[in-house]
């Protein structure tokens, strides 16, 4: 029986992963709690490493992994390298986690599929006094962020002023611990060292059908096992829901697989899962790379489970244990599954939320349904961590069923039954 250490497991994920472990011969061991690595106000990298190392010294393991973005992804790479466990290595992980470094790699490997971009120092006053880093409009975002946090669509000098002020105010929360991560690399490229962990990147906007590809690398062999469609609101930036399986053509999938293989091979990424987001223009036969993530997407696990009767959690565990993944998709109980993002655009104070018993009743009533509530009573929405600039995320709702229209109907019912209430901000 092997032992698998995982960073940042929720209770539900731990139970689910342990059920997989019972079938495949491994035990699950959580070494850093979810609350310490997700949506925390501060991330102290050295303290997290000290705690994790002490727990690993007390209980050696056969594999170490995570399903989360920074800091978890980098912590896992640092700890696994030090312990001699299967890992892509910190350099490969950071080369994708650092948005500017990742774009440089993409441009070198797949220039036709990489939008224009430029490094930006948000603290340089010349940013506001001189020419913009790219022609308007463009996206401005930190080199390290997630969930759209501090990502701004800049259409004018006035927008640039607002974005720069917001970046200066909030970029160090992730930027400082990310710089500490960069400091672990002795051979950091000069252009990356110059940007650092608290730099920013400007990117030309691209459009099309947005999707995510899931894959893994084992012993240098790249495999892709799932493609998911991403649906956006009228603003063309805010996610409304994901659906699985994708409706993209086989030609589009082939292009994405080729690009993915070239990217992970270029940086020597191995013994781990990955997911890559793309924009696809089927009419033009064009594919744009949005971002590369050196991990599975936890957002896809339920969708795969209900449609395929198999999940990417298996891939995460097996690659971390230096095993060839044995993912065997088959006909699951649902033909289609979706993850919905429940949002609110106006600031407010949360007045009422359902308790755990109420959520369990809703999930049971709707069958293939999971609700993850992200707010608590008395929360002020504008003070929540890791929110995008244009809306506030309240909950995730996962649903599986026979066809997509049915899922939308059930989603509206679930939202009504949750009974979330808000008070206006005084």
Overview of the structural elements:
The mean pLDDT is 95. The chain has 15 helices and 17 strands. Strands 12-11-8-9-10-13-16-15 form an eight-stranded antiparallel β-sheet, sandwiched between helices. The chain has 426 residues and is an alpha+beta fold. Helix 5 (90-97) packs across helix 6 (99-109). The chain has helices at residues 11-24, 34-37, 45-58, 72-83, 90-97, 99-109, 126-129, 157-170, 172-182, 190-195, 250-266, 301-308, 312-320, 356-365, 404-418; strands at residues 2-7, 26-32, 63-66, 117-120, 138-142, 152-154, 200-203, 209-218, 221-232, 239-244, 272-281, 286-293, 336-344, 349-352, 369-373, 392-401, 421-423. It folds into three domains: 2-96 and 206-320, ATP-grasp fold, B domain (D-amino Acid Aminotransferase, Chain A, domain 1, 2-Layer Sandwich); 116-203, Dna Ligase, domain 1 (2-Layer Sandwich), CATH 3.30.1490; 336-423, Pyrimidine nucleoside phosphorylase-like, C-terminal domain (Aldehyde Oxidoreductase, domain 3). The N and C termini lie far apart (57 Å). It is globular and about 60 Å long.
Indicate the radius of gyration in whole angstroms: 21 Å
Multimerization state: single chain
**Biggest pleated-sheet summary:** 8 strands, antiparallel
Query: Helicity range of the residues?
Result: 25-40%
Count of distinct structural domains: 3
Class derived from helix and strand content: alpha+beta
- Overall geometric form: globular
Q: Look at the structure and give the CATH class of the largest domain.
A: Alpha Beta
Amount of beta strand: 25-35%
Q: Might you state the CATH topology name of the largest domain?
A: D-amino Acid Aminotransferase, Chain A, domain 1
Q: Count the E strands.
A: 17
CATH architectural designation of the largest domain: 2-Layer Sandwich
């Amino acid at each position: 029986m092997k032992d698998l250490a995982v960073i940042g497991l929720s209770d539900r994920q731990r139970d689910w992963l342990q059920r997989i472990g019972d079938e495949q011969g491994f035990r699950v061991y959580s070494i850093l709690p979810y609350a310490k690595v997700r949506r925390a106000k501060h991330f102290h990298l050295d303290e997290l490493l000290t705690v994790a190392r002490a727990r690993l010294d007390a209980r050696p393991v056969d594999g170490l992994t995570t399903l989360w973005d920074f800091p978890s992804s980098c912590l896992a790479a640092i700890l696994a390298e030090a312990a001699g466990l299967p890992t892509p290595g910190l350099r490969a992980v950071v080369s994708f986690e650092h948005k500017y470094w990742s774009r440089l790699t993409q441009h070198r490997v797949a220039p036709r599929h990489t939008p224009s971009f430029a490094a930006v120092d948000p603290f340089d006053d010349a940013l506001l006094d001189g020419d913009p880093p790219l022609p308007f409009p463009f996206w401005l975002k930190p080199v390290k962020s997630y969930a759209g946090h501090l990502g701004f669509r800049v259409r004018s000098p006035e927008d640039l002023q607002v974005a720069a002020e917001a970046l200066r105010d909030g970029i160090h929360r992730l930027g400082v611990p990310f710089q500490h991560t960069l400091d672990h690399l002795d051979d950091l490229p000069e252009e990356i060292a110059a940007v650092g962990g608290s730099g920013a990147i400007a990117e030309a906007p691209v459009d099309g059908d947005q999707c995510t590809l899931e894959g893994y690398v084992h012993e240098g062999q790249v495999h892709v096992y799932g493609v998911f469609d991403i649906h956006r609101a009228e603003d063309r930036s805010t996610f409304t829901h994901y659906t699985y399986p994708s409706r993209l053509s086989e030609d589009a999938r082939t292009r994405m697989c080729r690009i993915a293989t070239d990217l992970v091979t270029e940086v020597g990424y191995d013994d781990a899962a990955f997911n890559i987001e793309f924009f696809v223009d089927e009419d033009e036969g064009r594919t744009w790379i949005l971002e590369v993530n050196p991990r599975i997407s936890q957002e896809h696990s339920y969708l795969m489970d209900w449609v395929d009767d198999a999940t990417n959690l298996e891939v995460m565990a097996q690659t971390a244990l230096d095993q060839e993944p044995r993912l065997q998709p088959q006909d699951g109980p649902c033909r289609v599954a979706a993850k919905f993002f429940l949002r609110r655009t106006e600031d407010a104070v949360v007045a009422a939320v359902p308790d755990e018993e109420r959520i369990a009743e809703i999930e049971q009533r709707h069958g293939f349904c999971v609700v993850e509530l992200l707010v608590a009573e008395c929360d002020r929405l504008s003070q929540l961590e890791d929110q995008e600039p244009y809306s506030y995320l309240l909950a995730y709702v996962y649903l599986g069923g026979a066809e997509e229209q049915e899922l939308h109907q059930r989603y509206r019912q679930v939202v009504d039954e949750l009974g979330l209430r808000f008070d206006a901000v005084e």
